[in-house]
Amino acid sequence: MTGGTRATRATHEALPPAMREAVDDFADHLARVRNRSAHTVRAYAADVVSLLDHAVRMGCSAPAELDLTVLRSWLARQRTVGAARTSLARRAAAARTFSAWAHRAGVLPADVAAPLSSPRAHRDLPTVLRADQAAALVEAPDRRPPATRPAEATGHKVTDPAGPDADGRRDDSPPGASRQDGPAGPARPEEEPVRLRDRVLLELLYGTGVRVSEACGLDVADVDHGRRVIRVLGKGGRERSVPYGVPAQRAIDDWLRSGRPALAVPGSGEALLLGARGGRLNPTTARRIVAGYAESLGLPRVSPHGLRHSAATHLLEGGADLRAVQELLGHSSLGSTQIYTHVSVERLRAAYRQAHPRA
User: Which residues are identified as catalytic?
Assistant: First the structure.
């Protein structure tokens, strides 16, 4: 088992050999056959390690001894120690996926988790920016510095406290190089490429609604300037084309003309967005960039996913078809997109309460 926390790796190593092998084969199946992201593989593998560790404590010595009683006991234990409903739902899904795979692979005599139920995950309505707030955030690199200057912009050597991003990648900068990632201002001439990069990042996140990992995974060749679309590789390896507008086109042109060449190094490859030391921009840094500019404007705390929520909500409020928004966002299920209709209804209700004399 690769990745995961130190505690999870230690628990994995303490499992009986047959169980360790089952976890490793399951993780390999998710990555190679199901084409799941590294983040999903790590999360599901960690859940299965926790399940099998609980099974061992209940007297099981091999995966074939799993049954519905063990699974339910494991979920009950998770609830007892305070796991949230969303965590319980995900762990139950991991158990069902593992059980179905293990049965097909001959590891389990039956798909014991098929009847396993899980609590319905509570879905909070996502926080979204108003259209004017989103516009101000996207244009922030051109107009003002953030509230604080992060260490990356001071010229001091720093390390990424968050480590590798969700896909296990890092900015492939040479060791010991100083970093200038993140918004800082007023921009000195040497910081201009970073400002141009930040503007492209923000334009793409809000202007297309792509996930932060999808934006950071873009290559130069994924941009179709003639049709103004980007080719995005989403969850499960699903590819889709997403349109972008004239402001994003201008930002991309400026970046490719004056920003990217200044940051590119021999190891940059074809990555569209680069870190300050020339490696592919990673999602951890992108999140810091978005948060820094939002703070500088006094906006509600927002993440790249918040910009995705905002884009979807504004599309629906502007009259876009729900299925068109589903395609743009890359949702496999329409149910994932319908949450944004709830956001719009809430805004409509708030406006009604404020303005209608009979409210």
Answer: 211, 235, 305, 308, 331, 340
